[in-house]
Specification:
By secondary structure, the chain is α+β, with helices and mostly antiparallel strands. The protein has 5 helices and 9 strands. A hairpin with a 2-residue loop joins strand 3 and strand 4. The chain starts with 13 loop residues before the first strand and ends with a helix.
């Protein structure tokens, strides 16, 4: 097909994150469920990831679909209708949030020391008025700045019932 790739052009770069639980954070009324977050343990760190579905990995750059999407630049929401950036077929193929379906994502990640976070949580549980001091906050900022990374991933473990509103409620 002249419009779409038969195989993932970034396959050799993708990290397998299929077992990591992803929490979709789009509004439940969103036309496209394409944003998610995850946190998982890796040795002495927590790895925090922000996932964005990557429909562009299905579309050839010089295709008509690509040109139309580039022109629109985003999905537009009007009071009575939605004007999607991509055809529904592409959104469905690339969509985030479909359980057990491989989804290609663009991921921004950072790592934070588990002990630092766990100590903070323990102190907060003992004393609800406990506040992080400047030293702790500076440590976390430094860890984030020194570990920030961008990866391409394949994910499929979508936790159901978690939307933007639910994540906000939990946090």
């Amino acid at each position: 097909d002249a419009e779409m790739y038969n195989e993932d052009p970034l396959h050799h770069l993708r990290k397998n994150m299929r077992k990591v639980p992803i929490y979709c954070i789009d509004d439940p009324t969103a036309h496209e469920i394409d944003d998610g977050i995850s946190i998982h343990e890796d040795q002495q760190d927590y790895v925090v990831s922000i996932h964005v579905a990557e429909p562009s990995s299905y579309i050839k750059p010089n295709s008509i679909i690509s040109s139309l999407a580039f022109e629109k630049s985003s999905t537009s929401y009007m009071p009575d209708t939605v004007f999607p950036m991509l055809p529904k077929l592409v959104s469905d193929i690339a969509g985030l949030g479909i359980p057990d379906k491989d989804t290609r994502t663009f991921v921004v990640q950072y790592r934070i020391d588990k002990k630092t976070v766990d100590d903070y949580i323990s102190n907060k549980m003992v004393n609800k008025n406990y506040e992080a001091d400047k030293l702790l906050l500076d440590q976390l900022i430094s860890q984030i700045n020194n570990s920030s990374n961008i990866v391409f991933a394949t994910v499929s473990n979508f936790r159901q019932g978690f939307t933007y509103d639910k994540v906000n409620e939990v946090l």
